[in-house]
Structure formats: structure tokens, C-alpha cells
Amino acid sequence: MNADSAVEALHAIVDQRQLELDDLVRRIQSFAIETPSWGYGNSGTRFKVFAWPGGARNLHEKLADAAMVHRVTGACPTVALHIPWDNTDDWAAARQEAESLGMRIGAINPNLFQDDEYKLGSLTHPDPAIRRRAIDHVRECIVIAQTTGSDIISLWLADGTNYPGQDDLRGRRHRLFESLQAIYADLPPGMRLLIEYKFFEPAFYSTDLPDWGTSLLMATKLGPKADVLVDTGHHPHGTNIAQIVAQLLDEERLGGFHFNDRKYADDDLIVGSVNPFELFCIFNEIAGAAAEGNSNAGRIAYMIDQSHNIEPKIEAMIQSVMNIQIAYAKSLLVDRAALRHVQKAGDVLAGYRELQAAYETDVRPLLAEVRRRQGLDVDPILALRSSGYVAQVARERAVAAVSSGYPGA
Ligand code: RM4
Ligand code: MN
Ligand code: MN
Fold it and tell me: What pLDDT, in 10s, does the model give residues 315-330?
């Protein structure tokens, strides 16, 4: 399809659905996606970390890269931080620096997995002194969030066991809840605790927060300031993530996402690169709930969680943002009235075909229009490439020293 016929096809579907182009554009323009500071620095696999020329080495450089992504996409005004990876001794200054770049600090991610003390767990550790240390670290993150103007603490635990019998599973569960209660009690008004889950890795027998059900139980027991965070790379194969999203929306406990894609495990690949239809189905659930007035649908933190291995880091982030926007835009095109009608009639195929009609629509002309109206280049990747930014940071920043995860390598 050439560009003109794609525009015509788009207008046809917008008219047919009785959608207003201006309204669609506004909704896409107000859809914000948070990028992670850790996606701009060097990262890799346990085999090798390839140093990227210009890879961000500190908070200043990560903020600058995130600001560049926002400049070309117009969609990424916040950046998530990971503590202590992004530590600084002056958080008020960091906030100002972000603001001077037109950015805000987003979710604060405590790190409860890289200290020697955490070998047997952090919030679930058998030793109360180590649990206390982990709780104190999250408290420190709450203070950082307050100083930087962030309202989200995003918690992921590596806690678990490697062998049956290594620890008491119910005992760990009790310790987890008690630790979470201590953290929850410290949340200032307006701040939310997002509880992420992952079914495996680094623990191999049991993980203390393995699935959405456990996160939801903890959040429900804690109170209204706790919600569930869905990382799209954290489920066993075959899991229906869209259905999890539907359930969390229905319980009004969907706090946010960590978007990434994967072929095998927690691969942290460019969002929508492997399974764009799954991404669309997730957004279809959100758009469907929003159309019915579900209040949770309007307060979801859309965040990317990627760590790049061989991809150009800033481009990979921009491509992820574009792919998320595509899935979101398509979900807005679903004819909800027609869908309800055929579902009620029990017409199995017709329901699928309603989704397919939206999914197969080329929304790139729509996104081009969105960007044109924002004064942006219609292709953010090309905008980055022609800006000279990547070459400039490659010149200015020394190549960071990186290591392999394996001893002696
Ligand atoms: C985990 C999880 C967390 C992220 C860490 C680094 O797999 O996705 O969100 O902070 O990796
Ligand atoms: Mn994550
Ligand atoms: Mn992950």
C-alpha cells in the first residue's frame, strides 16, 4: 500500500467507525510512555556485555538520552530510575536537571538483588536484620521519590529459593507481607507501590512473587495505595497476558506495565518486535475497559523495561515507543458497539474479525498526523539519525568499561 492509499484507508475506517480524527489524535498525544534509565547504559547477557560507543555512563547522560527520546517522540516525558545504579548525592539537583531538559523523574526502582547480604532473599530473608536493611533501602527510595517529585515506587524482588526444603515457603510469605506492610506504612499520600512479579530467575525452585495472583493478593491485603505491575516478559509461555490485564482492570488493581518483548525468557527485546498481536490484545482490553468507564484504565503507568544487548540503545527505545503507539492506536479503532453486538449474538468468528479489522489497519498515517501536529518529524528514528546526537555522544563519552558475567572471562 502506498502512502496515499494508506491515508485513504485510514480515513475510511475512521469514518466507518464514526470516530473523530481530532479526538483520536488528542488521545494518542496524551498517551505517555516512561523510558528506563537502565536502557541507555551498557547491558548484555551473562556471557558478554558489548560496550556501546556513547552508552550512557551516569545519571546525567541517561537523563540526556531520555530527553532525546522525548524530543523526537513527544511521548516520553518521564524517566524511571534504578537505585543505586542512578545514585547521586543531590536529588533536588537531579530533579532540576531533568526539568531543565523538559523531563520529570518517573518510577523509582529499588534494587534488592545486588548486595551480598541478599543471597537468601531481601524482604523475605530469614534474618530479620537483613529484612530490615532491605526495608530501609525501599524507605530511602521513597524519600528519593518525594524529593524528585515521583509518585511511584516500583518493586521487583529476586527473592526465592533454589531447592525444595531450602526454606519454609509459608514462612517466606509471612515475612514478605510483613516487610511490605512496613514499606506501605511509609508511603506518603499520593504515592503508589507497584508490585511486580516474575515466575523464575534468578531463583530456580520458588520465587516469592511469582505471578499476578500473588502480587494482587499482597496489594489487596496492603491497601489502596498498592497495585500490580505487569512485565510482559515475566510469564510462562502460553500465558494469556491480555486476560491477566482484563482481570486486574476489573479488580481496579492494574498499576502499570513494564513493556518489552521476548522469544524465549525474560529477553527484554524491543517492545512488539516478536509478538505485536499480543501487545494489541493487551491494549484492546484497556481500550475496552476505558470505553466502559473503568476508572483504573485512566491511571496506568506505561513503562518500558528493556536492557539492550546488541541494539543501538536510543534507537531501540524509540522503536519500542513507536510500536507501543501503534498497538495503542489500533486498539482505539476497534468498533466496540459492533463487537458487543456480535459477541451477544454468539458469532465467534465475527468477534475475532472485529479485532482483526482494527489490527490490520495501517495506523502509521495516523501517527504521522499526530506527530505533524506536534511539530515533530513523522519518523522519530530518522529524526534521531539526522540530529547528529548519536555521533556526538559517541565522540563525547568515553567507552565505558564493561565486564562479562563469567569469572575469569
Ligand atoms: C527484572 C525486572 C525488574 C528490573 C530488573 C533489572 O527482571 O524486570 O523490573 O528492574 O530485572
Ligand atoms: Mn520489569
Ligand atoms: Mn525483567
Answer: 999 999 999 999 999 9
Helix (H, G, I), strand (E, B) or coil at 230: strand
How far is residue 156's CA from residue 7's CA, in Å, rounded to a whole number? 43
Q: For the chain, what percentages of helix, strand and coil (3-state, to nearest 5) are there?
A: 50, 10, 40
Centre of ligand 1 from the C-alpha of residue 394, in Å: 27
**C-alpha 306 – ligand 1 centre gap (Å):** 9
Please determine, for residue 24, whether its predicted confidence score (pLDDT) is greater than 90: yes
SS3 of residue 302 by DSSP = strand
Q: How confident is the model at residue 404 (pLDDT cuts 50, 70, 90)?
A: low
pLDDT at 57 over 90: yes
Q: Note if the pTM is more than 0.85.
A: yes
Atom of ligand 1 nearest to the CA of 201: 7
Task: Dump the DSSP string for 211-228.
Answer: SHHHHHHHHHHH-TTEEE
Containing H/E element for 257?
strand 254-259
Nearest ligand to the CA of 258 is 2
Ligand 1 neighbour 196 (Cβ under 6 A): yes
149, three cell numbers: 517529585
